[in-house]
Every structure is written in C-alpha cells, then in structure tokens.
Design brief:
Length: 246
Amino acid sequence: MKRRQKSIYILVNAAKNSGRGILHGFLSAVGSRSDLNLHICEMSEYGKKALTEAILSNQVDGLVTSEIEDQTLSNILNTSNFPLVVIGTRKHCLPRKKHYLRIVTTNEVKLAATATQHLISCGHFASYGYVHFRENFCRYLSTQRERGFYDVLRRLHLDGISYTTDLPEEKSDAVELGSWLKSLPKPSAVLVGYDRRAADVLDACAQNNITVPDEIRVIGIDNDEMLCDFAQPFLTSISIGQVEQT
C-alpha cells in the first residue's frame, strides 16, 4: 500500500539572502524525498494567507518558517499539532505551543556587535549611526541588532544615533533618510540593519553628494552577494554565521 505524501510547507522571505539560504538548505536536505510534497510560500500577505488557509483546512503536516511577527499566524501556530521548525526568530514567539516545536536562533546582538567592532576599527569617526529595517515583521530583529550596536559603543564610551521612520513601508523615505545622513558629523560610521536597507543608504548618499567611504563608512548585515557586488560603491557586509539551537 502506497503511503500518503506528507505536505510540508516552507514560509520564508526569499528576497533576503538569509531567507534564500534557509530555503536552499532545506531543499538540499529533503528535496529528493518522494514521501514529501513540498509547498513554498513567500513571506508576504499572499503567502501568509495561503499558509493560514492550508492550516485551517488541515492540509499541513509540517512547517519550516522564520520571523514570526504576524499575530494572526502566531495565534494559529500556537494551537497547531504538526511539527514546526522556526528559524531566526525570538524564543517566546509561540509561548503556548509545547510540543513538536524546534527553534533555531542566531545571536543577533552578538552578530551586530561583531559588525560594529569591525566598523569602528576602520578609522576615527566623529559620529556613529544605526539604520533600522523598514518591514514591520522584522521590528524585533532590527531592535536586537540595534542593541548589539549600542553595546559596543557603550563599552568604548561612544555615543550613537539611530534612524527610523514612521512612514508606511510602501512610501519611500529617501528624503528623510538623506536629511539624517547629512546631519551626521563627518566622518561617520553607519551600521545598517540588513543589506537591502544598506542599499537605500548608499542611494541616499549618492543623491545628497555624500561620499562613501570618505564621509560615511557603511556596513550591512546578511552578506547578500547580489546586493554587495553590484552596489555603488561596493557594500561591505557581515554574514550570518554560527547559530544557537534551542
């Protein structure tokens, strides 16, 4: 008798290098198994809706996901009874799910601290800045990386300033970001929450005639080769390395 294929869903942000890494690693490990029916959902409103509908219809036998910030999805997963692997999110994101849960986290504070230490070692700077993510579902991740940035500055008795915006994600904040960058005493060292946002910083510098790296030294996080190699100028970034399993 032929066994029923198990429907395994993967929900990741494939626009990010780390999300593509999760997807590639999982597919490399299980992609050839004939007993699994894999479904890939993008971390978008459409993707989360498709996954939610599949869960409510009892069509999900297992899920690999990341960055659970959506409250509706979190509530559903809290009461789910299928195996769940969560990569790259905070430990208490699913406080009521007691079984079939495995969480793999990166020490985001330490990661950002390492990037900050490298940035500071590049020279003597008049100011230090941190630029947050734009995406709402990454707010926790961005805050953790900001914490690592300030941990290093405090140890060295340095001051820093952060940039964030209240503008909706779909609206450009290029003008506000450019004004903030211009206001920084030069030369300045800026850590950006992740590489896609670092590309915004480089664009804002170009639009405001701020030279990189002479006036502002920029470093990102994620080491997205596509973004780093084709950025103008080339973007320095730190890769997400060792993970802590919990």
